[in-house]
């Protein structure tokens, strides 16, 4: 599959269907064990595929008109999470974050399970496990795990910002 093509993504009912930005722009994938992802996914963890926010926003008027938006205030970071979902089947589609000063976070994420399984190389993506300090399931030996975020990679900038605040 060409790196120029986006990943095709659709919700459970098919109302929402579009392509991500070109896969060459992806910042990788992570299984996130934070408590927000547990609540949001109603499961043990959430799997996200990251892209630069600037490659996704602003959304096309057509897509924006189909999506519903729930805004969640994250008391730990002070950011507001923009949680986009399908109004018909309720499936969460993607997340972006807005900092207290109104600036959008540098990376956003798509819910990876919405991508056609044949399009995504799950084993080859070598997903990290992040926020494992709140994991509710056993983590296997050999998995790439981080208490919070990795020092490098897709979330580097945000980790530095968190450290700066502490
Ligand atoms: Zn739907
Ligand atoms: Zn999370």
TrEMBL record:
Magnesium is among the record's keywords: no
Domain CENP-V/GFA per the UniProt entry, residue ranges: 4-123
Gene3D superfamilies membership: glutathione-dependent formaldehyde- activating enzyme (gfa) (3.90.1590.10)
Keyword 4Fe-4S part of the UniProt annotation: no
GO molecular-function term, one example from the UniProt record: metal ion binding
Keyword tags: Lyase, Metal-binding, Zinc
Pfam families: GFA (PF04828)
UniProt record similarity statement: Belongs to the Gfa family.
Designated name of the protein: Mss4-like protein
Organism: Podospora fimiseda
Record lineage: Eukaryota, Fungi, Dikarya, Ascomycota, Pezizomycotina
């Amino acid at each position: 599959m060409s790196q120029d093509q986006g990943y095709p993504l659709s919700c459970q009912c098919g109302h929402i269907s579009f392509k991500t930005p070109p896969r060459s722009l992806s910042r990788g994938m992570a299984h996130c064990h934070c408590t927000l992802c547990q609540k949001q996914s109603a499961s043990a963890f959430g799997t996200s595929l990251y892209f630069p926010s600037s490659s996704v926003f602003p959304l096309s008027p057509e897509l924006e008109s189909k999506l519903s938006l729930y805004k969640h205030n994250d008391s730990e970071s002070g950011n507001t999470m923009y949680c986009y979902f399908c109004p018909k089947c309720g499936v969460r589609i993607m997340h972006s974050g807005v900092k207290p000063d109104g600036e959008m976070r540098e990376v956003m994420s798509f819910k990876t399970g919405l991508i056609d399984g044949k399009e995504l190389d799950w084993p080859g993506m070598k997903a990290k496990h992040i926020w494992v300090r709140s994991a509710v399931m056993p983590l296997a030996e050999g998995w790439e795990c981080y208490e919070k975020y990795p020092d490098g990679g897709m979330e580097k900038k945000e980790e530095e910002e968190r450290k700066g605040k502490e």
